[in-house]
């Protein structure tokens, strides 16, 4: 950071500034937030000022940056948490094993299965290949954090129209280009990690032109006795940083994810975009599962949004302890990083685990065997504070509760206008042939085989019902895929997606329900029973009351139907601020990924017609 | 990977080394396939064979009866598919491998493993056990992209290949493919003829009725529709499609359309070699 | 007619897994003194137009398709 | 210290799906007069040795890892 009026360089042989907020007025606070790219509002800055007044000092740049990360929408769900609590978190059932980084449900007597979906929308709009690839990387880590072996991926995507070259606002990339890059990114990363991509979807509409949606889901399998926690076991433990080195990549990624895309994003958001390295990832998965399987660790969590700053705090706080961090121990990609950059960098392929001191050596040995970097960087303490040291200098000390608590908002919302029967007009149709051809050539209907076959959907040799079904090389899309997660068992896990953004735009409450309904029908169609959902709520700017109204109503719909069906939603993700330049919002898109169970996958059915002369039944009304 | 009933073969403990490096995958299902026919399969990291690990973890290639190179990817397939894995193997344990092959012990390479065998010079190996440089290449698919799709293979081997020893000549198997670089090439105009003369052709892509394949039945454009070949001695085989993915019928893409047998079509390949070694 | 080389480099600070994996392998093969390996993509394009124009055309190709300014830089040279 | 470019070309007669796919895309974007597109791979390697030696070293790298002689030719130039 360059020398600015409010930043006073401390007399130490490295980059460290004290940020003068105590003597700043509202305007000054606003300027500090902007100049440091903190993404904090004036009210939030004032809360921080009050805190440091009590501490009797100004914060350091490291502390301010950490707060910027921790209090972002992406990390603390400040606009959506209340809504989620009210409608979806409460649906409980005794077979929910965990609601950690991924949800975990009972699979059979010995195993649980993990599920989670996440968005990687903004990075993908800027750099589709790297954005999608790192999205896969992140969701894989969320599942590995539960101690689970990833067994399948899902990739529901939404883009602008691809059947014609369209006029795009400056700075926005052609949907065709974006789609090509995203599919390649998912293909290269998923295939190289050896995890089959078995379900997903593509949805096209003009309203995604300025802001495409890239949602990625992952499923995993874990022995119940190996189910991992995502936090420290208590004080006196060691925190070990695992995987890739830390660099400048991905700095301010979460703030970026919590802002509207502007026309200049492409040029100046480079720091927020990263390329994945699947070849580091694969050994990281092996090694993490090995140390967990040997019960050498007490907790494990991935480094995603906010990097170290979020993961260390959350692991300590949830473990009921504090933490002392030796920041200079963090292995770096390049020299010359300032402490705050290291603390908030979102470099890929990193995980954190906690362990008892006596197990450190054994753990490091296993990582060494896999050529994976592993470095003890922190200790848990019996205070409620986190402290950071750099070459002996204390550069950070904050109350964990304050740091990771974050604000929570009850923002104003407007109930969306709901379409009624009266509004509907049934179009006059030209002749049937024309309609049929037009439908079949519409990208929303046309075959997605060109993409599906670029994804390896059979690697691991456990795909019982494939994404494409029917006569060989004449296949059509199936409804759900079925995986056989446990070697030697025919018990199957059916996975499918569901979402209808057009419905949701007309009636968010029923649209939310429709997503769950569609996922259920897909699962039932292969002969499995719906068991759990995970959801990715892609909506616009929550500071606009009409957008927040859409979110609220859709979530209420999801919650009502899930509660009605008594099916839990043990994990999910919220992605807000999905607006292109000029405030053109996306369609409200509550993406549902559903999981179902089938006791004997040999009884599964597929949608293809098997022979001439079969009877066809229509079920339902 | 599902348990497969009906295995009566209980041969003497055949020890299989399933080799991996960073970024390999498909090794679990490869090991599972060998176990399904009664062999003892161990996942071994290349480091364990080169001595770069603590004592109790070290292994010697000599201890094994079969070497299997799994499919998927290795080292991200940067540079060229299989090139990095092959170069590392050759420089570290090249002579061990030559000895292993000259000893007549079976070596199987599937997909990426096939690419590694070609890059190593263990296939086609017309003139020596392991040629100094590669004499063939598995090149980018004609379509220019990764293809994951069912393929049908015909056993065209006249009896030399140990991996098809219990599969009738002309037998049709459905074994899926998943690769971006599977087009077998050589600049030698007599390449195919030489393979034929030596009985080195093992599998060809065909259509369901056994007739000549074209895209997509031949997913990569390989000349003469070749999907798998062996060395002149018949103990080293490489193939692009993945037999380890179809050990039971329930992972075949079209099993809901009444496949007759409970076994998967990949099983006889593993059974062939284990029966030979009994 | 002109033949141009369009060279696409990764910008500084963008991770290059292909380069770093290749470096690692070269080292394990015993090559000494390898300080850095970068993977670069080059398109050799033959165009039916004079050299000057071909160069401009190549640059336009980069902007429209071949390079992503977020992570890549490009340069066009006439062969 | 020397920086070398190791250029890996496809041999004549070896089809180039990446090149021809790129050509097709460029044409569909409206580029005219594109006669041929070849995809070439370049490794930019920085070596801790004099230029002469670096060139030799680069050639050895091709023989041992970077090129498959069946389909690829290589050339090494000092930058
Ligand atoms: N829409 C949702 N439905 C259900 N659970 C959700 C939803 N959004 C977030 N969650 C859960 O809230 C927790 C915190 O999410 P997040 O902060 O994104 O996770 P992480 O710490 O992995 O980044 C996770 O357990 C996640 O599964």
Care to describe what's here?
The complex is a heterotetramer, with one copy of chain A (621 residues), one copy of chain B (278 residues) and two copies of chain C (79 residues). Chain A is α+β, with helices and mostly antiparallel strands and 621 residues long. A seven-stranded mixed beta sheet of chain A has the order 10-12-9-13-11-14-15. Chain A has a six-stranded mixed beta sheet with strand order 3-4-5-8-6-7. The longest helix of chain A is centred in the last third of the chain and has 21 residues, at 545-565. Chain A is globular and about 85 Å long. Chain A starts with 6 loop residues before the first strand and ends in a 23-residue tail after the last strand. Chain B has one domain (11-277): Class I glutamine amidotransferase (GATase) domain (Rossmann fold, 3-Layer(aba) Sandwich), CATH 3.40.50. Helices cover 22% and strands 21% of the residues of chain B. Chain B is built from six helices and 13 strands. In chain B, the strands form three sheets. A nine-stranded mixed beta sheet of chain B has the order 2-1-3-4-13-12-11-7-8, with helices on both faces. In chain B, strands 5-10 form a two-stranded antiparallel sheet. Chain B has a two-stranded antiparallel sheet with strand order 6-9. In chain B, strand 3 (66-69), helix 3 and strand 4 (107-110) form a beta-alpha-beta unit. In chain B, helix 3 (83-102) crosses helix 4. The radius of gyration of chain B is 17 Å and the shape is globular. Residues 1-9 of chain B have low confidence and may be disordered. Chain C is an alpha+beta fold and 79 residues long. Chain C has one domain (2-28, 35-78): Phosphoribosylformylglycinamidine synthase subunit PurS (Mth169, Chain: A), CATH 3.30.1280.10. Chain C is 35% helix and 38% strand. Chain C has two helices and three strands; from the N terminus they run E-H-E-H-E. Chain C has a three-stranded antiparallel beta sheet with strand order 2-1-3. The longest helix of chain C is centred in the last third of the chain and has 16 residues, at 51-66. The radius of gyration of chain C is 16 Å and the shape is elongated. Strand 2 (34-47) of chain C pairs antiparallel with strand 2 (34-47) of chain D, so a sheet runs across the interface. The site of adenosine-5'-diphosphate (ADP) has 15 residues of chain A, from strand 21 and strand 22.
């Amino acid at each position: 950071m360059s020398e600015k009026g409010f930043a006073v360089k401390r007399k130490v042989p490295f980059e460290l500034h004290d940020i003068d907020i105590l003597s700043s007025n509202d305007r000054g606070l606003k300027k500090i937030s902007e100049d440091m790219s903190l993404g904090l509002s004036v009210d939030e800055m004032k809360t921080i000022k009050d805190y440091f007044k009590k501490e009797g000092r100004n914060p350091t740049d490291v502390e301010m940056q950490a707060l910027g990360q921790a209090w972002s929408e992406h990390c603390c769900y400040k606009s959506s948490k209340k809504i989620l609590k009210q409608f979806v978190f409460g649906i409980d059932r005794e077979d929910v094993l965990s609601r950690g980084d991924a949800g975990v449900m009972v699979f059979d007597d010995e195993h649980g299965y993990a599920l989670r979906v996440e968005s990687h929308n903004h990075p993908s709009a800027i750099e589709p290949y790297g954005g999608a690839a790192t999205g896969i990387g992140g969701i894989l880590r969320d599942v590995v954090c539960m101690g689970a072996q990833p067994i399948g991926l899902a990739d529901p995507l939404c883009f602008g129209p691809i059947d014609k070259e369209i006029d795009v606002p400056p700075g926005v990339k052609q949907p065709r280009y974006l789609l090509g890059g995203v599919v390649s990114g998912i293909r290269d990363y998923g295939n190289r990690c050896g995890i089959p991509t078995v379900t997903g979807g593509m949805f096209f509409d003009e309203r995604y032109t300025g802001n495409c949606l890239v949602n990625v889901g992952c499923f995993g399998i874990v022995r119940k006795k190996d189910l991992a926690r995502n936090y420290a076991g208590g004080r006196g433990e060691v925190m070990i940083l695992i995987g890739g080195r830390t660099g400048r990549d991905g700095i301010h990624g979460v703030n970026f994810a919590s802002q509207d895309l502007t026309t200049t994003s492409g040029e100046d958001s480079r720091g927020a975009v990263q390329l994945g390295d699947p070849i580091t990832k694969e050994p990281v998965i092996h090694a993490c599962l090995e140390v967990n399987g040997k019960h050498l660790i007490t907790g494990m969590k991935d480094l995603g949004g906010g990097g170290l700053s979020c993961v260390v705090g959350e692991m300590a706080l949830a473990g009921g302890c504090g933490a002392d961090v030796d920041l200079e121990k963090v292995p770096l990609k390049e020299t010359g990083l300032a402490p705050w950059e290291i603390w908030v960098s979102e470099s890929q392929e990193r995980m954190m685990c906690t362990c008892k001191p006596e197990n450190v050596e054994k753990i490091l040995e296993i990582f060494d065997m896999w050529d994976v970097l592993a470095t003890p960087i922190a200790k848990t303490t019996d205070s409620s504070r986190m402290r950071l040291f750099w070459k002996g200098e204390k550069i950070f000390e904050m109350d964990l509760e304050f740091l990771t608590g974050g604000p929570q908002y009850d923002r104003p919302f407007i109930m969306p206008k709901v379409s009624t029967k009266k509004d509907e007009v049934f179009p006059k149709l030209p002749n049937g042939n024309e309609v049929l051809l037009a439908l079949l050539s519409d990208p929303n209907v046309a075959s997605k085989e060109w993409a599906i076959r670029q994804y390896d959907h059979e690697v691991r040799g456990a795909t019982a019902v494939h994404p494409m079904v029917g006569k060989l090389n004449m296949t059509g899309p199936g409804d759900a895929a079925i995986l056989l997660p446990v070697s030697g068992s025919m018990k199957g896990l059916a996975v499918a997606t569901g979402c209808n953004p057009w419905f949701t735009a007309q009636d968010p409450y029923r649209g939310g329900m429709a997503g769950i309904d569609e996922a259920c029908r897909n699962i039932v169609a292969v002969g499995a029973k719906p068991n759990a959902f995970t959801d990715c709520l892609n909506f616009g700017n929550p500071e606009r009351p009409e957008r927040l109204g859409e979110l609220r109503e859709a979530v209420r719909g999801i919650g009502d139907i899930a509660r009605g069906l008594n099916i839990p939603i043990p994990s999910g993700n919220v992605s807000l601020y999905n607006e292109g330049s000029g405030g053109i919002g996306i369609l409200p898109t509550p993406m549902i990924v559903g999981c179902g169970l089938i006791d004997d996958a040999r009884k599964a059915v597929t949608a293809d017609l098997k022979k001439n002369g079969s009877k066809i039944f229509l079920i339902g009304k | 990977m599902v348990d497969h009933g009906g295995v009566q073969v209980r041969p003497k403990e055949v020890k299989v080394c399933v080799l991996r490096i960073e970024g390999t995958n498909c090794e679990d299902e490869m090991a599972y396939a060998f176990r399904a026919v009664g062999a003892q399969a161990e996942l071994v990291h290349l480091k364990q064979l080169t001595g770069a690990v603590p004592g109790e973890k070290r292994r010697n290639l000599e201890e094994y009866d079969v070497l299997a190179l799994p499919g998927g990817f290795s080292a991200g397939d940067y540079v060229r598919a299989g090139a990095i894995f092959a170069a590392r193997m050759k420089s570290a344990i090249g002579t061990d491998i030559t000895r292993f092959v000259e000893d007549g012990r079976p070596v199987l390479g599937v997909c990426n493993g096939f690419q590694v065998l070609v890059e190593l010079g263990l296939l086609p190996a017309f003139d020596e056990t392991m040629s100094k440089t590669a004499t063939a290449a598995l090149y980018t698919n004609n379509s220019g992209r990764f293809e994951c799709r069912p393929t049908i293979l015909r056993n065209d081997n006249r009896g030399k290949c140990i991996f098809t020893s219990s599969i009738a000549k002309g037998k049709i198997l459905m074994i899926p493919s998943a690769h971006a670089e599977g087009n077998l090439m050589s600049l030698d105009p007599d390449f195919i003829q030489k393979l034929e003369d030596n009985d080195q052709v093992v599998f060809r892509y065909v259509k369901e009725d056994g007739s000549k394949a074209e895209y997509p039945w031949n997913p990569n454009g390989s000349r003469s529709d070749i999907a798998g070949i062996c060395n002149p001695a018949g103990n080293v085989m490489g193939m692009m499609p993945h037999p380890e993915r179809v050990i039971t019928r329930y992972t075949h893409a079209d099993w809901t359309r009444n496949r007759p047998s409970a076994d998967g079509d990949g099983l006889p390949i593993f059974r062939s070699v284990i029966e030979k070694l009994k | 007619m002109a033949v141009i080389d369009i060279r696409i480099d990764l910008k500084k600070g963008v991770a290059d897994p292909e380069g770093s994996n290749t470096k690692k392998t070269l080292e394990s093969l015993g090559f000494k003194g390898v300080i850095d390996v970068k993977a670069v993509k080059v398109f050799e394009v033959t165009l039916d137009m004079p050299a000057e124009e071909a160069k401009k055309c190549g640059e336009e190709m980069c902007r429209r398709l071949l390079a992503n300014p977020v992570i890549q830089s490009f340069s066009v040279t006439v062969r």
